[in-house]
Design brief:
This protein is of the alpha/beta class. It has three domains: 51 residues, no CATH class; 140 residues, Rossmann fold, CATH 3.40.50; 162 residues, NAD(P)-binding Rossmann-like Domain (Rossmann fold). It is built from 19 helices and twelve strands. Strand 6, helix 11 and strand 7 form a beta-alpha-beta unit. It is globular. Bound molecules: glutamic acid (GLU). Glutamic acid binds next to strand 3 and helix 17.
C-alpha cells in the first residue's frame, strides 16, 4: 500500500490494534482493493465509513473453565467478536484451535462481514471460538468444554441477534453439545446456531456447502477461460469439513485430486483419490482424525513433510487454514503449471503470494467469495428455521449453486466496473464494501 493511501485509510488503525498482525493485514488488504471506490465515492471517506467498518461493534472475551477426565481443572479463553450488523444478525463460525487469539478472530470476523455481504442474504459479520484443542480429548471432555463455553456465550446470541456456526475444530458433535446447553439455559428451541443435525433443525447440504460451493465457484471461474474441471489435476490441502466435500464434488466433475495434507505433511497420489480411497479419506478424517501418512501406507504412495504446492497441478485449492500459501509456495505453484488458486479456507494466501499469482496470470479466487457457500447455506438454515420447514436436498443445492454463481458474477462485474477486469480479489472486496458501506450510510451514525 502506498504511503499516501496508508495515511488516508489507516487513521490510527495500527495504533489502536497493536499486536494484531492478522487483523491489520486483513484490513490493509481490503482497503487496498477498494481504493478505486474511494476515488469515485469520496462520501465514504467523509462519513468515516472505513474507520467505522474496521472497528468491531462488540468484542467479548471470557473465561472457559472445565474439568478433564483426570479431574484436573483446565482454563481456556473464549471469544466472540460481533463485527458488523448493518446487513443482518451477526453471523459467523466458532473455531476451537490452540492458535486462536483476538487478532485471528477479529481478522476472520472482519472478513466474514464482507463475505456475508456477497451472499445477498440478510447476514451480519462475526467470528468466535477458543484456544481449545478438541483433538485428543474424549467426547465427555469436549461436551464439558462446550457446555462451559455456552454458559457464557448464550447471553450474547439469539436467532435475531447473533447466530454462530462451526469452523475449524467445531463440527456436528460440538454444535450438538453447544445447542443442547443453549436450549437448556434459555428454555427455548430456536435457531441460534447453524450446522445443526438434520433431525433437529439442520439443513440439507450444510456439511457439504463450503466444499461444494468452492467447486461451483471455481468451475465458473474456469469457464470464463473456456475450461472445465473435466480431466484437470487438482492439488488440495485440508481434507476435513471443506476439503472432503470438495474432493467428492471434484470427482463427480471428472477432475483428478492428487494431494491431501495435514499439519505435518502431504501425500501425492498421481492416480487420483477416487473410489474406495474416498471412503478411506472420509473415515480417516471423520472417524479417526488420523494422519495422511496412513493414506500413504495404505495405498503405497509418496508421503512428504511440508505443503503440497510443488506438485504439478492445474488447480490448487487451499482448504486447511490461514497462512498456508506464502510467496515461496506461490512460486512453486506457478512453476508447477497451476492455472487457478481458489481459497477454500479463510485467509490461506499471504498478500505477496496473491500478488505473485496475479502477476503470473494465475486466476485467484479469494475465500470471501469462493468459500461463501458454507455461510450461505447457514443463511438458508436460518430461513428454514424461521418458517419451521425443511427444504429438499435438491432445493438447497440449487440455491447454493445460484448463490455461488451470483457471487461470481458480482465479483467480476465490480472488478470490471472499477478498472480491474478479471480480478476476483478486488472485485469481491469492492462489491462487498459497496453493499455494506451503503447500508451503513443509510443507517446513520451508529
Ligand atoms: N465458518 C464458516 C465460514 O468461515 C461458516 C460460518 C457460518 O456458517 O456462519 O464462513
Amino acid at each position: 500500500m502506498s504511503l499516501a493511501l496508508r495515511s488516508r485509510v489507516d487513521d490510527g488503525l495500527s495504533g489502536r490494534n497493536q499486536g494484531e498482525p492478522e487483523f491489520l493485514s486483513a484490513v490493509a488488504e481490503a482497503w487496498e482493493n477498494i481504493q478505486p471506490v474511494l476515488d469515485r465515492h469520496p462520501e465514504f471517506l467523509a462519513a468515516n465509513i472505513l474507520q467505522r467498518m474496521a472497528e468491531p461493534e462488540r468484542q467479548i472475551m471470557f473465561r472457559v473453565p472445565w474439568t478433564d477426565d483426570s479431574g484436573a481443572v483446565r482454563v481456556n479463553r473464549g471469544f466472540r467478536v460481533e463485527f458488523n450488523s448493518a446487513l443482518g444478525p451477526y453471523k459467523g463460525g466458532l473455531r476451537f484451535h490452540p492458535s486462536v487469539n483476538l487478532s485471528i478472530i477479529k481478522a476472520l470476523a472482519f472478513e466474514q462481514g464482507l463475505k456475508n455481504a456477497l451472499t445477498g442474504l440478510s447476514l451480519g459479520g462475526a467470528k468466535g471460538g477458543a484456544d481449545f484443542q478438541p483433538r485428543g480429548c474424549s467426547d465427555g471432555e469436549v461436551m464439558r468444554f462446550c457446555q462451559s463455553f455456552m454458559a457464557e456465550l448464550f447471553r450474547h446470541i439469539g436467532p435475531s441477534t447473533d447466530v454462530p456456526a462451526g469452523d475449524i475444530g467445531v463440527g456436528a458433535r460440538e454444535i450438538g453439545f453447544l445447542f443442547g446447553q443453549y436450549k437448556r439455559l434459555v428454555n427455548r428451541f430456536e435457531g441460534s446456531l447453524t450446522g445443526k443435525g438434520l433431525g433437529w433443525g439442520g439443513s440439507q447440504i450444510r456439511p457439504q456447502a463450503t466444499g461444494y460451493g468452492l467447486v461451483y465457484f471455481t468451475a465458473e471461474a474456469l469457464a470464463t477461460r473456456g475450461l472445465s474441471f473435466e480431466g484437470k489435476v487438482v492439488a488440495l490441502s485440508g481434507f476435513g469439513n471443506v476439503g472432503f466435500y470438495a474432493l467428492e464434488k471434484l470427482n463427480s466433475l471428472g477432475a483428478s485430486v492428487v494431494t491431501i495434507a495435514d499439519e505435518d505433511g502431504h501425500i501425492h497420489d498421481p492416480d487420483g483419490i477416487r473410489g474406495d480411497k474416498l471412503r478411506f479419506v472420509h473415515d480417516l478424517w471423520f472417524k479417526r482424525r488420523g494422519s495422511v501418512r496412513e493414506y500413504a501406507e495404505e495405498y503405497r504412495v509418496l508421503y512428504e513433510p511440508g505443503r503440497p504446492w510443488a506438485v504439478p497441478c492445474d488447480v490448487a485449492l487451499p482448504t486447511a487454514t490461514q497462512g498456508e500459501i506464502d510467496l515461496a509456495d506461490a512460486r512453486n505453484l506457478v512453476d508447477a503449471g497451476c492455472l487457478c488458486v481458489a481459497e477454500g479456507a479463510n485467509l490461506p494466501c499471504s498478500s505477496d503470494a496473491i500478488r505473485y499469482l496475479r502477476e503470473h496470470g494465475v486466476m485467484f479466487a479469494p475465500g470471501k467469495a469462493a468459500n461463501a457457500g458454507g455461510v450461505a447455506v447457514s443463511g438458508l438454515e436460518m430461513a428454514q428455521n424461521g418458517s419451521r420447514c425443511q427444504w429438499t436436498r435438491e432445493e438447497v443445492d440449487r440455491r447454493l449453486k445460484e448463490t455461488m454463481s451470483s457471487i461470481h458474477k458480482l465479483s467480476l462485474e465490480a472488478a470490471e466496473a472499477y478498472g480491474w477486469p478479471g480480478d476476483y480479489a478486488k472485485g469481491a472486496d469492492i462489491a462487498a464494501f459497496l453493499k455494506l458501506g451503503n447500508a451503513m450510510m443509510d443507517q446513520g451514525v451508529v
